[in-house]
Design brief:
alpha/beta; Alkaline Phosphatase, subunit A; 3 domains; 3-stranded antiparallel beta sheet
C-alpha cells in the first residue's frame, strides 16, 4: 500500500482471540434443508445494467431496434450520453454515497449518473492515479459489458440462476452495504455494549476514518500526500490537537517514500527515531482516539446462540473505498485482523463477547476448508482491491478470482449441499435504469448483479422477483435458525433499527431460485480461474 495513505498514532494494541463454533445442525435432507452450506461472495461496485444490461431475457437497458432508447444529460459538457458497449477491462465509475444515489435516481428519472460522475472526478489530475484520470472519464458510467467481456459471469448465468431485480440493501456506499450483509442495519452507537444507544446512520456509521491495527501501531486512513483533513477531523474529534495531527503526518512523510509498499512503510515508521516528547504526545492521544463500536445485533449473534458455525474470510491486501464522495481513493491496508469497510465484524460487540473474533480469517483458510469439505454453515468472503472489480480494478482479474473460489467449492465434498450467492455490494456509480422500490427510511439501493450457484439452482433461470441482499440473511435464518429474525423484539437485544428487513412484504422468496427436487447439477468448473 502506498505510504501516502497512512498517518500513525503510536501506542495502541488490540488483541484478537476466539474460535469458530462447532456445528449443531440437523437436516432432514428435503427442501431448503438440503443446503448445509451458504457462501456469500461479495464483489464491489457494479450495477445490474453495467454487467447484464444486454443479457437475453433480463430486464436490461431499454432498447428500440437493438439501440439504447435512453440518453442521459451531461451538464458539464452539454448534450447527453447513451449507454454504450465498453469493452475496457478497467473502468472509472463514479461517487456512490447515499447523496450520490439520490442524485442518480433523481426522483425516478434515473438520469443523474453522468452529472455525478463529473462531480466525482472534479479536481482529479493525471498525477493522482487513484482518481483514474482520463479526459472523457465521466461517460464511463454509461458503458456496459456483455458476454464477450464477462464470459465467466454470463456462463454462470446460463448454467445457474440470474436475479435481475436484486437491489442493494442500503442506498449508500460500501461500509453500510457490508454492515447490511451481516446485520441488516447501519447505525451509530453512543455507548459501547448498549444496542439501545444505536441510532440510524445510513451514510456514516462510525465517527471517522477506519483505524487499522498492526502490531503496536494504530494507523488511520489519512492521505499524507494529499489533504490531511479527513485524518485531522478524526483526531480533533477525539480531543487531539491539529498540531499533533500534523506531527503524525510529518512522521509518516519523513519515514516513508511515496513509492514504498505498505510493509516497507510500516517497517520504516517502526524504526523511526521519534522525539521523546512527540512519542509521549502520541501515546496520550491514542488513549483518546475513538474506535467504532457496533453494539447492535448482527447475524453471528443468532448463529452463535444456536451453535451454527460461521466464518468471514478476508483477502489480505488493500481496500479502496472513499468516505468523501470521491469516485475512488488510494487503497488502505486490509487483513483479517484489521477492522475496515469490507471487514466490519471485528467492531461488533457480539462477535467479541461470543469469543468469535477468530472466525474472521484470511482467505487462504477458505481454500483449505473447501478442499477438505470443512466449510461452515455460513461463509462470507470479502475481496481485496485488485480482485474486487471496484474501479479501476480489472474485471478480468475479478472473474478469475471468483471462478477460483467457486471452483474450489465445486471440487470439494461440500458442493452437493452448498448454495453460493454471488453479489456486488453497491452500484459504484454505474448506470441502471430501474428505480429502487421504497423500502423503509433507509430505502433499497440501486440494482446490483446477483447469481445463485448451487446444485439445486434452476438452470438458465432468470428470477424477476423484487429482492435485496436482505434475502440472503432470511435464507440463512430459514435454513439454520428455524426462521428466527434479526428482530429486537425477539432477540433479547433491543436496538433502534427502523424495521425487520427480512420480514418486508417487498422482499421476494429466494427459494424460488431453487428446485430442491431436481437431480443435483454437476460442478461447472471454469478454466480461466485463479487461486490465491
Amino acid at each position: 500500500m502506498p505510504a501516502g495513505l497512512v498517518a500513525v498514532v503510536l501506542g495502541m494494541l488490540l488483541a484478537f482471540a476466539g474460535t469458530g463454533g462447532e456445528g449443531g445442525l440437523v437436516s432432514d435432507g428435503t427442501g431448503i434443508s438440503r443446503i448445509k452450506h451458504v457462501v456469500i461472495i461479495t464483489q464491489e461496485n457494479r450495477s445490474f445494467d453495467s454487467y447484464f444490461g444486454t443479457y437475453p431475457g433480463a430486464d436490461g437497458i431499454p432498447m428500440v431496434d437493438n439501440q439504447p432508447a435512453v440518453c442521459l444529460p451531461d451538464p458539464a459538457h452539454g448534450g447527453c450520453v447513451k449507454p454504450f458497449h465498453n469493452p475496457a477491462d478497467s473502468n472509472v465509475g463514479a461517487p456512490h454515497s447515499h447523496n450520490d444515489e439520490v442524485a442518480d435516481v433523481h426522483g425516478g428519472a434515473m438520469d443523474g449518473f453522468v452529472a455525478q460522475a463529473d462531480k466525482g472526478l472534479a479536481g482529479c489530475t493525471a498525477v493522482q492515479p487513484h482518481c483514474s484520470y482520463r479526459p472523457a472519464a465521466t461517460t464511463d458510467v454509461m458503458g456496459y459489458h456483455d458476454g464477450t467481456d464477462l464470459p465467466t459471469y454470463w456462463d454462470y448465468a446460463s448454467n445457474f440462476t440470474l436475479q435481475d431485480h436484486m437491489f442493494a440493501s442500503a442506498s449508500a456506499w460500501s461500509l453500510p452495504a457490508h454492515l447490511y450483509l451481516v446485520s441488516e442495519w447501519s447505525a451509530k452507537c453512543t455507548t459501547a455494549g448498549d444496542p439501545a444507544s444505536c441510532t440510524n446512520a445510513l451514510q456514516n456509521p462510525d465517527s471517522g476514518p477506519d483505524p487499522e491495527i498492526i502490531g503496536n501501531t494504530l494507523i488511520g486512513k489519512c492521505q499524507s500526500a494529499a489533504d490531511l483533513a479527513p485524518c485531522k477531523e478524526a483526531l480533533v474529534s477525539a480531543g487531539i490537537s491539529p498540531d499533533l495531527a500534523a506531527g503524525v503526518d510529518r512522521l509518516v512523510n519523513t519515514s516513508c517514500k511515496p513509492t514504498d509498499t505498505y510493509n516497507a512503510c510500516q517497517a520504516a515508521v517502526d524504526a523511526a527515531r521519534v522525539p521523546a516528547a512527540l512519542k509521549q504526545q502520541l501515546a496520550a492521544a491514542a488513549t483518546h482516539l475513538h474506535l467504532p463500536d457496533y453494539a447492535w445485533t448482527d447475524l453471528t449473534y443468532l448463529l452463535h446462540q444456536q451453535h451454527v458455525p460461521w466464518n468471514y474470510y478476508v483477502f489480505n491486501g488493500t481496500e479502496p473505498d472513499c468516505r468523501n464522495d470521491a469516485a475512488t481513493c488510494a487503497p488502505v491496508k486490509q487483513d483479517s485482523k484489521t477492522p475496515g469497510l469490507w471487514n466490519p465484524l471485528l467492531y461488533f460487540d457480539t462477535v467479541k463477547q461470543d469469543g468469535e473474533l477468530g472466525n474472521i480469517q484470511p482467505l487462504t483458510n477458505f481454500y483449505d476448508a473447501a478442499r477438505r469439505g470443512a466449510l461452515p454453515a455460513v461463509t462470507w468472503i470479502a475481496p481485496t482491491d485488485k480482485v474486487s472489480e471496484h474501479a479501476p480494478a480489472k474485471i478480468s482479474t475479478g472473474q478469475q478470482y471468483v471462478a477460483g473460489l467457486i471452483n474450489a467449492i465445486m471440487s470439494g465434498p461440500d458442493w452437493n449441499s452448498t448454495a453460493i450467492f454471488l453479489n456486488w455490494d453497491d452500484w459504484g456509480g454505474f448506470y441502471d435504469h430501474v428505480q429502487p422500490p421504497a423500502a423503509d427510511a433507509n430505502g433499497y439501493g440501486l440494482r446490483v448483479p446477483s447469481l445463485v450457484i448451487s446444485p439445486f439452482a434452476r438452470k438458465g433461470y432468470i428470477d424477476h422477483q423484487t429482492l435485496s441482499q436482505d434475502a440472503y440473511i432470511k435464507f440463512i435464518e430459514d435454513d439454520f435458525l428455524h426462521g428466527q429474525r434479526l428482530d429486537p423484539a425477539t432477540d433479547g437485544r433491543p436496538d433502534g433499527r427502523p424495521d425487520v428487513r427480512e420480514s418486508s412484504p417487498l422482499l421476494g422468496d429466494l427459494t424460488q431460485a431453487f428446485d430442491f427436487n431436481q437431480a443435483p447439477l454437476p460442478p461447472h468448473l471454469i478454466a480461466d480461474a485463479s487461486t490465491y
